[in-house]
């Protein structure tokens, strides 16, 4: 069965769960729960090109909201000549350094809740350029490039979380192994794509 859509995936999960004398007649909402469990684990463990996104931030105050779906920062700098990379500082060190209301060109940032906090406090408006890992829209909303390239991630991930519905089934260990292998393949493929064709460079000094 091709797994081209969310409904295809639900049908595939139902088919794979089927056993002799047991149709695994789970309602679609429960199958959807398994997909959500798989997605949570996928986005917690993978860092691949499909999950990268860039955005511009207006840096006009001490904090700015993180982009929707944000998981982890890759790069943050202020646009201008020259470009000014911002260094990440853990919150305790950040607030020990920037507690006196100092204003100026931001040189560092930290993350608190759903916000990026800048230090010093910006003395004017700046444009921040952010590259980050993001969570893609839920598969129930739309398909995405990561799913299209790796539908086995969602299938085996969902199946490996099915223990509450099918009990201590021996197939769970097999599905978990297949899921782990799919995660490793997706990460390896992304790493190869990123660096393929680039000559090795030896740094000196």
Number of strands: 10
Q: Tell me the major beta sheet.
A: 4 strands, antiparallel
Give the amount of beta strand, in percent: 15-25%
Order of helices and strands: HHEEEEEHEEEEEHHHH
Rg of Cα set: 22 Å
Please work out how many helical segments DSSP would assign.
Answer: 7
| Shape estimate | elongated
Q: State the separation between the terminal residues, measured CA to CA.
A: 56 Å
Fraction of helical residues: 25-40%
Overall pLDDT metric: 91
Which structural class fits the helix and strand makeup?
alpha+beta
Q: Within the largest sheet, what's the order of strands?
A: 1-10-3-4
Counting structural domains, the number is 2
Low-confidence stretches: none
Topology:
Elements: H1 6-17, H2 28-45, E1 52-59, E2 63-65, E3 70-78, E4 84-85, E5 87-88, H3 91-97, E6 103-104, E7 108-112, E8 115-119, E9 121-122, E10 126-134, H4 145-149, H5 151-160, H6 163-166, H7 171-195
Parallel strand pairs: 5-7, 6-9
Antiparallel strand pairs: 1-10, 2-8, 3-4, 3-10, 7-8
Helix pairs in contact: 1-5, 2-5, 5-7
Structural notes for this entry:
The chain has helices at 6-17, 28-45, 91-97, 145-149, 151-160, 163-166, 171-195; strands spanning 52-59, 63-65, 70-78, 84-85, 87-88, 103-104, 108-112, 115-119, 121-122, 126-134. It is an alpha+beta fold and 205 residues long. The chain has two domains: 6-48 and 137-192, no CATH class; 49-134, no CATH class. Strands 1-10-3-4 form a four-stranded antiparallel sheet, with no helix packed on it. It has a four-stranded mixed sheet with strand order 2-8-7-5, with helices on one face. A two-stranded parallel sheet has the order 6-9. α1 (6-17) crosses α5, α2 (28-45) packs across α5 and α5 packs antiparallel against α7. The mean pLDDT is 91.
């Amino acid at each position: 069965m091709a797994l081209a859509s969310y409904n295809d995936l639900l049908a595939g999960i139902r088919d794979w769960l089927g056993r002799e004398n047991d149709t695994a007649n789970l309602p679609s909402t429960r199958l959807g729960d398994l997909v959500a469990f798989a997605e949570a684990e996928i986005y917690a463990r993978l860092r691949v090109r499909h999950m990268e996104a860039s955005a511009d931030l207006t840096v006009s105050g001490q904090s700015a909201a993180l982009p929707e779906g944000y998981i982890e920062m890759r790069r943050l700098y202020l646009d201008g000549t020259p470009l000014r990379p911002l260094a990440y500082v853990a919150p305790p060190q950040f607030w020990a350094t920037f507690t006196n209301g100092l204003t100026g060109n931001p040189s560092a940032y930290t993350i608190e809740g759903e916000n990026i906090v800048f230090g010093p406090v910006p003395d004017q408006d700046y444009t921040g350029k952010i590259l980050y890992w993001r969570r893609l829209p839920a598969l129930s909303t739309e398909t995405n490039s990561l799913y299209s390239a790796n539908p086995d991630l969602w299938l085996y991930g969902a199946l490996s979380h099915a223990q509450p519905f099918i009990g201590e089934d021996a197939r769970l260990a097999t599905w978990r192994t297949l899921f782990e292998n799919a995660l490793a393949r997706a990460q390896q493929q992304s790493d190869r794509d990123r660096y393929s064709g680039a000559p090795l460079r030896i740094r000196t000094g």
